[in-house]
Design goal:
The complex is a heterodimer of chains A (about 270) and B (about 350).
Chain A: H1 4-37, H2 41-46, H3 55-65, H4 68-99, H5 105-114, H6 120-133, H7 140-144, H8 151-161, H9 166-174, H10 179-190, H11 192-208, H12 211-216, H13 225-233, H14 240-260, H15 262-270
Chain B: E1 4-13, E2 16-26, E3 31-35, H1 42-50, E4 57-62, E5 65-66, E6 77-80, H2 92-102, H3 107-120, H4 136-148, E7 154-158, H5 166-183, E8 186-191, H6 194-200, E9 203-208, E10 211-216, H7 218-223, H8 228-233, E11 240-250, E12 253-258, E13 264-269, E14 280-285, E15 296-307, E16 312-317, E17 323-328, E18 339-344, E19 350-352
Helix pairs in contact in B: 2-3, 2-4, 3-4
Classes of the chains: A mainly alpha (about 270), B alpha+beta (about 350).
């Protein structure tokens, strides 16, 4: 007869094998990217999976072909502005939806959630025409504007605000704070883990954003890192080593942000207020 | 002056009226406790006084000034919340000085007032800690300190001890009583715990479904409840209510027959008119009123015993299964299942009419 302990051990082994396979599948693209950055195009095409010696050559070609400081600055500028504005506007909306009652609140909220179901492809052309009318095509404002009121982030903030103690708001009112002061001086610091988690999500989305910037950013001076890497990869004879080194460089800021805010991210996902 | 006056104060949420016309006079320096079961509107009434809920109709005055539309911070009140409501990102010192900082007081003055409150509440060693590093009792003291530094006309406490364990609750109750004695401030205190109400209050306001059932000093409410609700709510263990029928009587006396107790007849002193014979009434007897020498006798069977040390609570049943609680000071040899005669002086019994009003 098989003992209970033995069954447990078998179950653990199966679980760990499954997790190891999943972990490998997750990490493989990163590994391939890093290895690719050290190899020549022909090695990459042949499927070489060991580190090579072409990293310096790839980097030199990348920095020769691309105005790296400009495209990184463009990406950084768009990402920072989009992240700050999205967090501010969406958290204000989420807070408002949860804290203030109105006859139309739930209807408006449902309508907003329904907007999540509209695919971006259906919005592209109207948005493009709108930006054209405002004369914003080929500007970074055109990239940022459509993202700042994110239905998902509003939803996320509203859900998190349910855990925000209403008595804190009452105490602040008794202490003499106005509504906007309660939001900035009490709500924001108390919900910092929620902000951290939302920051990571919004930052990564903005940094990796591709389709909409591809449509509205048309000159080389305004393009972002994702657009430039994509154009490197779609050349007639693409240099995959150069593409890979560009991808590695583009990944560094998001990795840095994630690892710097990992603890707050987990706390934010679990709930801010303890 | 920190009198608080409420005149026909009402509160509605849509079509539902929560507070149904409250009239109340709270004198300067008085410790008033709002007490009542969950959902009776006591916290809503307190929040209306604080300005955290709007007043649908009626007038609220603090220190003689109408306050209906005044901002909470301008009413001269300070509030202590059930969950303490300390700002988690601030230290104890910052929490206590926050309102003063907002009122534009100079830093030196804030420091002086915060230090003074910390001294009164023995919070000095905790001033640089954040709330999460404090125990429940310490957090509550900080919340009280935050209220003290504002030097309010009226302190409002919303079930401040509910989150504390039994021992700490007793300790904090004494602290709050001392604080009232030392500061001499007007305090309005909400609780559902009638022991807290009895021990702290100068005046108790008993609420039910948004209506004030009775206002009075603790012992006045205990000895002379206006109706069945107040009689049942004030006092622990709860008053016994025995169903009875008016058998007869004379001027100043009604003979009440208790059908569920073998038809025992209890003569009860009567203030008003003698109700018609056969009228249903309720006889109220406190568990502590049962004695070995009382003139009224109820045959009962012991159901359960609780030995509390200083007294024994006997839960007994009548022949019709009506439950009677008897608080016995003696450690008798009564056991569960025994039959006994529960005696009480008929002069101590209270009489209520069928609609719950006290008729003696």
């Amino acid at each position: 007869m098989i003992s209970y302990g033995f069954k447990q051990r078998i179950a653990s082994v199966v679980v760990y094998i499954f997790l190891a396979v999943m972990a490998f599948l997750s990490i493989f693209p990163f590994l391939w990217m890093v290895i690719g950055a050290t190899n020549t195009t022909s090695d990459i095409v042949k499927g070489k999976m060991t580190f090579g010696e072409a990293v310096v050559a790839n980097a030199t070609t990348f920095f020769t072909q691309v105005n790296a400081p400009l495209i990184f600055w463009n990406s950084a500028k768009i990402t920072i502005i989009a992240t700050v504005l999205t967090l501010l506007i969406s958290s204000l909306a989420g807070y408002g939806f949860e804290i203030f009652s109105s006859r139309f609140r739930e209807k408006l909220y449902t309508l907003m959630l329904l907007s999540l179901m509209i695919p971006f492809a259906a919005l592209m052309i109207p948005l493009f025409m709108l930006m054209g009318k405002f004369g914003l095509i080929n500007t970074h404002i055109a990239v940022v504007l459509p993202t700042v009121a994110s239905a998902f982030i509003i939803f996320y903030f509203r859900q998190s605000t349910k855990a925000f103690p209403h008595e804190l708001r009452d105490a602040a009112r008794v202490d003499g704070l106005k509504e906007w002061q309660i939001f900035f001086l009490i709500y924001m610091p108390v919900m910092r883990s929620t902000y951290a988690a939302a920051f990571i999500i919004v930052f990564m989305t903005a940094w990796n954003s591709y389709l909409w910037p591809l449509i509205v950013l048309q000159s080389n001076e305004t393009k972002t890192i994702t657009l430039v890497i994509s154009s490197l990869g779609s050349a007639y004879y693409p240099d995959y080593g150069v593409v890979m080194i560009g991808t590695v460089l583009a990944t560094i800021p998001t990795l840095f942000v994630f690892f710097a805010m990992q603890r707050q991210f987990v706390e934010g996902m679990l709930g801010s207020v303890k | 002056m920190s009198d608080v006056t409420l005149r026909d104060v009402r509160k509605s949420f849509g079509a539902v009226e929560i507070i149904k016309g409250v009239d109340l006079d709270i004198k300067s320096g008085e410790f008033v406790v709002f007490v009542g079961p969950s959902g009776c509107g006591k916290s809503t009434l307190l929040r209306m006084i604080a300005g955290l809920e709007t007043i649908t109709a009626g007038d609220l005055a603090i220190g003689g000034d109408r306050m209906n539309e005044v901002d909470p911070s301008q009413r001269g009140i300070a509030m202590v919340f059930q969950s303490y409501a300390l700002y988690p990102h601030m230290t104890v010192r910052e929490n206590m000085g926050f309102a003063l900082r907002f009122a534009g007081l100079p830093k030196a003055e804030i420091r002086k007032q915060v230090d003074e409150a910390a001294r009164i509440l023995e919070l000095e060693p905790l001033m640089d800690r954040k709330p999460k590093a404090l125990s429940g009792g310490q957090r509550q003291r900080v919340a009280i300190g935050r209220a003290i530094v504002r030097h309010p006309k009226v302190f409002l406490f919303d079930e401040p001890l509910s989150n504390l364990d039994a021992e700490l609750r007793v300790h904090m109750r004494i602290e709050i009583a001392k604080l009232h004695r030392d500061l001499g401030a007007t305090i309005i205190y909400v609780t559902h715990d009638q022991v807290e109400a009895m021990t702290l209050a100068d005046k108790i306001v008993v609420l039910r479904s948004g209506v004030v059932e009775q206002v009075g000093a603790p012992l006045e409410l205990y000895d002379n409840p206006a109706n069945l609700f107040v009689a049942g709510f004030i006092g622990s263990p709860k008053m016994n209510f025995l169903k009875g029928v008016v058998e007869g009587g004379s001027a100043g006396r009604a003979d009440i027959r208790l059908p569920d107790f073998g038809g025992a007849v209890v003569p009860v002193a009567l203030k008003g008119e003698l109700p018609a014979a056969g009228s249903p009434v309720t006889l109220g007897i406190r568990p502590s009123q049962f004695t070995e020498t009382g003139d009224a006798a109820l045959p009962v069977t012991v159901d359960m015993l609780e030995h509390l040390g200083s007294e024994t609570l006997i839960y007994a049943r009548s022949t019709a299964s009506d439950l009677v609680t008897i608080a016995s000071q003696s450690r008798s040899n009564i056991a569960m299942g025994d039959t006994m005669i529960a005696r009480f002086p008929s002069s101590g019994a209270l009489l209520f009419s069928a609609d719950g009003k006290r008729i003696y």
